What does this fold into?
Amino acid sequence: MTPPTSAITLHAVEKRFDTDTGTVQALAPTNLDIAARELIVLLGPSGCGKTTLLRLVAGLIAPTTGAVHVNGTELWHGTTRAEAAIRDLGVVFQDANLFPWYSIEQNIALPLALRGIPQRPRLQRARELATLVGIAGFEKRWPRELSGGMRQRAAIARALSTEPSILLMDEPFGALDAMTRDTMNLELQRIWMQTACTIVLVTHSITEAVFLADRVVLLSPRPGRIDSITHVNFPRPRPVDIQADPMFAALCGTLRQRLDAM
It folds into this structure.
């Protein structure tokens, strides 16, 4: 069977929330097609619906109208999720959300434990992933003993533990200092190239978006809708010093102008 060429498809997906003061339209009807193995970045001002869109794809909230397909399977049937689609997803948030009473390897292996995988193979998988994300040697440490960047590496490893074909990331490096963030962008690029999974990442950083993305999807203020889609054609792997390239700066400048005009 030939795998679908689209990892994620949104067809007329809209999200409204009922509040004490009335109904809020967070996301206008949106169409988006994300190819398998693409690295897509959702960019836009605060409150534009980036996280809402990501949570719809992650199966955390149901759309008000429209359809979300994950690897060809419709994710939502009313408010019921298709678990077959959920199994294709890994999710990373801004906060690493590691359990402090578990070691790093236990945190990484937790999704496998929840699936009933025996201890030996799941810890072996955790060690392999610790190497992949660059924290080999820290498997027995407690989360409190690691820096913020290292905890985020562990969170990425945990999200990859079930070998998802799609990784969804909501501001994963937003709380890190600039130098650590650059390092994590390089590491994410390497991990993505090594695993060949599809990544959808939410960020407020224009530089981060252009550095990482195959395409930057720019969302307008609420109700969120796609303002533009920008292709980023710099060859990979991209070094950090590409940010000094005039073409890189020009692309960032164009996105900045669009954001400022909103």
The first strand starts at residue 6 and ends at 19.
